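Hello,

Our lab assistant flagged a job as stuck in the queue for most of the afternoon. It eventually completed. Since we weren't sure the result was trustworthy after the delay, we are filing this so someone can double-check. Below is the sequence as submitted and the structure that was eventually returned. Let us know if re-running is recommended.
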Amino acid sequence: MSNALKLHPTITSLSQALAKRELSATELAQDCLRQIEAKAELNAFVHVDADLTLAQAREADAMLAAGRGNILTGLPIAHKDVFVTQGWRSTAGSNMLKHYTSPFDATVVHQLRAAGCVTLGKLNCDEFAMGSGNKHSAFGPTHNPWDTTAVPGGSSGASAAAVAAKLVIAATGTDTGGSVRQPAALCGVSGIKPTYGAVSRYGMIAYGSSLDQAGPIAASALDLVDLLDVMSGFDNKDSTSAEHCKGVPNAPGRIRAEFNSATANFSSDIAQPLKGLRIGVPKEFFGEGLSSDVALAIEAALKQFEKLGAQRVDISLPRTNLSIPAYYVIAPAEASSNLSRYDGVRYGHRSDSYSDLADMTARSRAEGFGAEVKRRILIGTYVLSHGYYDAYYLQAQRLRRMIVDDFQAALTQHCDVIMGPVTPTVAQPIHQNQNDPTADWLADIYTLGLNLAGLPGMSVPCGFGKGASGKPLPIGLQIIGNYFEEGRLLAVAHQYQQVTDWHQRVAGQA
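-- returned structure --
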């Protein structure tokens, strides 16, 4: 069998093939497992168990045969290794959890499993989701399928790479500062970070609890609708889970209903369906540091939206540059607290050599954590310490409130959605910035504000630029909306993807 995901590149087409018995879920899973093995050089997967996968595939075939299937039943997916899963290891890309297996599934894993999705394994990621290039994994870097010398983005880099390389039809990711949108942009696929609280964080290994949010990665906005519609929902196991979204119960079906409603409310003018839509374009997203190829691709995408009837509105998000210092105070502070549980006592890595309890904890943490995690723990502990808490942490939280106000002023007074670049450049070489560990932080300049504000945002492919090796590399367009407007964002993105083919390009065929 040739690669089934190239023959059926969308969730709809693949689901139809399964429903028509053109192939079975078991045959599809076997084909994907072969593709994973054939493209092992990408280092996308950190744990594959064919027996577990094929058992799920047989269950999906039984569901389809009994007429109990839905559009996701039998579809091959994989999970970022910060979602705990029964059977597969759950490592968060760290030696601290190198051999950990969870006794339960994360809520997101459970929801997709209940829908009949077939899990192919666990995907590589920056250690504890701390990174912008998937370079900080204890299991080695993941490689971008468009150019294996380049990063796939991070921390959900392997999730985006696996989708781009047609190893899975979709994957889960997490977004703390851009970690779904950025790798989606750099790998030429689509990804969405929903509003904070829209998707349960239960069973998601924590980095920054007030920032972390789960989101799907797939080829297109239409595929994301099917995935996020199942993933989104209230969970009483998660204290930050939203019960209602703008007065509507947070439950499966909400995203699909909003997507359908937004689509129905678009203009009846076939040539200009987005007539009346106001697109805010922040001037701060087009300043120093933005490469010319990214700027040109974003400008071309905005002109395409104007052809679809949308109105371009110049706006300002004046504290954009301050989102980096605010984030890199708040996120490390929360990481310092969250990662204190890894002490060598209860679970995770324990040193083989120590003199007493304190020494055991110190040695276990020194051996188990990588350099980037240690760096952020130290920063977080420092800003939370006596004498510095007011000067750094409280000031960052005040700035966070101002960033929220900037977005709300724009989205309530001037525009309906905000658009701009996801990253300043195309994917950079894997070994770049090795001597400056904080240089990669600047790649998050356009994405961090959304996490600080808790807003939804997504990335869709919109063009190509030239990488350091001379190969064409994807560029992503960021689309930002107001709280709990994921369905509307996806509907706007779908209109763009109906008249462009960037999302249909396959690695090596740009």
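-- support follow-up --
The delay was a queue issue, not a problem with the job. The result is valid. The chain has a mean pLDDT of 96. Residues 4-262 form a domain with the Amidase signature (AS) enzymes fold (CATH 3.90.1300.10).
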